[in-house]
Amino acid sequence: MPAIQSREIRLKSRPEGTPAAENFELASAESPSPGPGMVQVQNLWMSVDPYMRGRMYDRPSYVPPFQLGEALQGHAIGKVIESGDPDFQPGDIVSHMLGWREYVTGPKALFTKIDAAGIPLQAFLGVMGMPGMTAYCGFLEIGAPKPGETVFVSGAAGAVGSLVCQIAKIKGCKVVASCGSDEKAARLKSVGVDHVVNYKTAPDLLAAVRAAAPQGIDIYFDNVGGEHLEVALELARPGGRFAECGMISQYNATEPTPGPRNLVYIVGKSLKVQGFIVSNYASMQGQFLSEMGGWIKAGKIRWEETVMEGIAKAPEAFIGLFSGANAGKMLVKLA
Amino acid sequence: MPAIQSREIRLKSRPEGTPAAENFELASAESPSPGPGMVQVQNLWMSVDPYMRGRMYDRPSYVPPFQLGEALQGHAIGKVIESGDPDFQPGDIVSHMLGWREYVTGPKALFTKIDAAGIPLQAFLGVMGMPGMTAYCGFLEIGAPKPGETVFVSGAAGAVGSLVCQIAKIKGCKVVASCGSDEKAARLKSVGVDHVVNYKTAPDLLAAVRAAAPQGIDIYFDNVGGEHLEVALELARPGGRFAECGMISQYNATEPTPGPRNLVYIVGKSLKVQGFIVSNYASMQGQFLSEMGGWIKAGKIRWEETVMEGIAKAPEAFIGLFSGANAGKMLVKLA
C-alpha cells in the first residue's frame, strides 16, 4: 500500500504563560506502509491533558520535553488499518501514546490492544484510561479514605476530579468540591457531591470551604495548587492526607509564584502531602480496570465529555483546559 | 513537711515575633507537701525546645496554648524528695513535663521513673529523650533510608539535626548538612557529616547544596522550612521523602510568609512531604531506647550540650534557640 498523508499538530514555539494558538502548527507527514513487526493505525480519538503543559517547557522532568517542530504526543485510541505483524489485524482497536496526528506507523510494542466490551472507545482516554486510573490510585492509595471522612477535591469538574468525587462517595465519604462555574457545580451535585464551591464567584474561598466542611477535611485531592492548597492546609485535620495530583494554577506562571503561607501546618498537624504520577501505580492497572469497569456497569460512575472534532481543533481543545472550557474529559474526535 | 518555695518562669505576655526577656517573669509559688498518691520532685534539669514557641500563640494546635500568668511547661528530669505513694521513693529519678520550675508536686501519673544505667541524666532530655526519639522515628519511618542515598539535614547542629546526621551515617547514607556557623560546621564534620554548608555565609544556598549533592537528594530532614525547603524541593530526586520535623524560620513570623515557589515539584517528582510530631510514634519508644542506647554504648553517637545554670536563665536559653546560641541540646541546670 502507498504511504498515507497524515495531518498532525507540531509544537511551533514554547508557550510563555498560557499556551496560545500561535504556539502550534498544523502540518502534514507521511505514515508509511508498515514493514515487518510494524503496525499502521488510524487514530479515532486523542486526549489533551493538563500535564502536557509541563512537556512544553525545555527542562528535565519525569517525561522528556516536547521538541520544537515535531508532532506532539499523547494518549490516543486508534484502529489498525494495516499490520506487518501477526499479533495485530486490521480492525483491532489499540491504545497508544502517539496522539496529535491522524495516522501513525510504528513498532508493535507501542500499541496495546483493548477489548472495549461495550464501553465507548473514548472512555479509554478518560474514566477507563489514564485520568480514571489517576483518580482511582491517587485517591485510594494516598487518601486511604475511611467512611465518614471529609474529602475536599479541587478542579472537581475535570476528568480526574469528577471521578475522585464519585469514588469518594462510593467509599462513604462526605465530599466538598470546587469548580469554576455554576453549571459545573450543578452537575457535580447531580452525581452526589455534598457541597460545591464555585471558586470564581465565592468572595472568600476559605470561608466558603470552611462553611461546607465545618469539622475540617481529612483528605485533599489537589488538582489546582495555589490558593486552594492554602485553604486545604488551613482546614486540614490532624493526620490529613493530601494527594497532590496537579497544580494547574501554576503551570502557566511566567515567574515563580510564592507558595501557601501556612505550610507550617504540615508539621503541626502531621500532614502527609504526597505527590504522584499515575505510572507510580502501574502494578494496579488490572485492579483498576476490574473495579472501575464494575462500577460503570453497576451505574455507580457517571462521566462527561467535551468533544472537539478534527485534528485542527486539538490546540484549541488543549488551550481550553486552562480556562475551564471542558466539563469532564476533553477529547478530540479524529475519525 | 512544710511546703517549699519554688521559683518558676511564667508567661507574662505573648511574644510578637522573636520572644524577648520581657515576655517572661520569674515568680515564686508553693510546692506543697504531697498527699496520698502524690509525689514531690526537685527538678535537676529542664529542657527548652523550639516547639514551645508554638504554644505561646493563643491558637488551637496539637498541644494547648500556654496561659498568661502561669508557669510554662516542658520536659524535665527531677529527683523525688517526698512521696505519698509506695511506687515512688525519695531519691528516685523521674522524667516529666512540668519543667520551668524548681520544685513540683503532682499526682504520680505525671512522673515516669527512669533507669539512667550510666548515661548522664540530662541525656534523657536530649539524645535519649524527646529530641533523640524525634530524630530516630522521623528519619527512619518517613525517610526510610537506603544505603548510598543522599540525605540533606537543615538545622543540623541542633539537638535533633545532629542526631539525624549520625543515624544517617550509621545507615550508610551520604549526609549534607546546613548550620549557621563555621564552628558548628567543624563539629558536624567531626561526627562524620560528608558536606556542611554554613547558610549564613554561603552566598547562594541552592548552589552550595547542589555542589555538595550534585546527584540530588533522596531524603530531606527539615527543621527550618522557608528557603531551605525551597532548595530541597529543587534538588530532590524523584520519589524523595521529606521528614517535616520543624520550620523554625517561620515560628516568629509576625506576618504570614509565602512558601517556596517550587511546590509543583511535589507533583512532578512524586515527593512525599510528611509532617510529624514525636507522639505519633509513641509505640516505638521501646525500640528507640534500646537501639539508641546500644549506639551510645558502642560509641557510635556523640552529642553536645549547651548548658545555662539556674531557673532565672531559662528565658535566655529559650530565646537563644532562635539565634542559634546552642550547639546540640540546649539545657538549663536547676540543681
TrEMBL record, chains A, B:
It holds the Pfam family ADH_N_2. The keyword Oxidoreductase applies. GO terms for molecular function: oxidoreductase activity, acting on the CH-CH group of donors, NAD or NADP as acceptor. Keywords: Oxidoreductase. Coiled coil: none annotated. Signal peptide: none annotated. Residues 17-332 form the Enoyl reductase (ER) domain. The keyword Oxidoreductase applies. PANTHER family: PROSTAGLANDIN REDUCTASE, PROSTAGLANDIN REDUCTASE 1. This is Putative NADP-dependent oxidoreductase YfmJ. It comes from Candidatus Phycosocius bacilliformis. The gene is yfmJ_1.
